[in-house]
UniProtKB/TrEMBL annotation:
NCBIfam families: HMP-P_kinase (TIGR00097). This is Hydroxymethylpyrimidine/phosphomethylpyrimidine kinase. Residues 10-254 form the Pyridoxamine kinase/Phosphomethylpyrimidine kinase domain. It comes from Caryophanon tenue. One of its GO terms (cellular component) is cytosol.
Amino acid sequence: MIALTIAGSDSGGGAGIQADIKTFQEHGVFGTSALTALTAQNTCGVHDVMAVTAQFLGNQLRAVLEDFSVKAIKTGMLVNAALMKEVAHHVQTLQVPLVVDPVMIAKGGEHLMEDEAVETLRNVMLPLATVCTPNIPEAERLTGKKITSYADMKRAAHQLLSLGVQCVVMKGGHLHEKAATDYVFMQSGEVFALETPRIDTKQTHGTGCTFSAAVTAQLAKGKTVRQAIIEAKKYIHLAIAYPLHIGHGYGPTNHFAYRQQLGQCEVHYREY
Ligand SMILES: Nc1ncnc2c1ncn2[C@@H]1O[C@H](COP(=O)(O)OP(=O)(O)OP(=O)(O)O)[C@@H](O)[C@H]1O
Ligand SMILES: Cc1ncc(COP(=O)(O)O)c(N)n1
């Protein structure tokens, strides 16, 4: 099984390409990558960003796609509209699931996507997505509306589904509720929630990248979208629950915890 991540490099290893490839590996999936940008980054923040050219991104995508039988693709930090259009050009004719994690701003507040690229993300990337995994601020930016309740979340999800996304996972990491609940809205009209206890921790650098990479790995293994999201929720919960305690800021999650069976994870499943 082979998966491809199209994202930025995190020199600190907790997010971006590094988180994605570690996550693929932990699921027994071979990881390939096309880099959109290099970041000089650690658990304390993003110090510098250098984007690649669209041409160079295209060359990486061609190199990977003409040689490997890629079974699922994910996108993370896409930086700007030109890189998004290049990605769309290469993936739009492929018959493989595409997970779009609409990365915009790092935990430390640094911008990982140009503001004006949001329209291209919405109108060019989202129509190609099998699964889109916005956190609340990203969903607000994509829809232009504030989200403070389940009703707001549902309205936003339907707005994204109307663009052609097959499945929207609204991640509740940023809602200050007692539980960490993600709400999943499918094109078919099915809605379900996945809930795990919220862990009180600062070790959350790269949670979004890690979760969406786990969904991608499961899809590469042939799982359904629903199964992939449920398994990914277990993976991210264990990665947050058994932190490595490295770095001086927002530490990375523990990508080994799931395979090493460091603990159990009950995901509470609720149909709507
Ligand atoms: N403290 C926590 N305890 C348990 N689960 C959490 C916690 N924080 C986030 N999660 C889960 O981790 C996954 C990623 O969610 P989150 O909202 O943090 O993504 P994100 O904001 O996109 O991450 P990032 O900031 O890395 O881009 C979701 O399944 C979410 O419910
Ligand atoms: C290269 C790259 N991609 C994505 C993130 C988002 O992760 P976080 O919000 O946890 O900082 C990041 N920091 N760096």
